[in-house]
What we know:
It contains 4 helices and 5 strands. By secondary structure, the chain is an alpha/beta fold.
Amino acid sequence: MTEGKIVVLAVRQLDERQAVSQLLEDLQMEVHHAESGWDAIHLLEDQPCDFLVMDIQLSDMHAWKMLGTLKESVNLDTLPTIVIMDIDEQAKVPMSNVTTVIRPVAIARLRHIILDMFST
Length: 120
């Protein structure tokens, strides 16, 4: 159910980015890396994408600002999104299809969340 899905990964912490990227590749997803919020926006606008995994705070913008900018050009209602955040950053999620994951990220739990997203 995840094979061949295209995902944009925008996570700032190197170890976390590598672990999540490896999980996505193990799930046979095609991973496109974004170094910043603007990189992610350009990737999502320029090509079809099935899934977005991002950090709550990227090098150049906050996740909610990025998604607000992106909603003008991409149908976010059909883009499953995971936002990784610290416990002290928890706030009301502004979109219904956004799932939050609190650090430290447990890869087994993340795998379960992703598989559950694509099984419905």
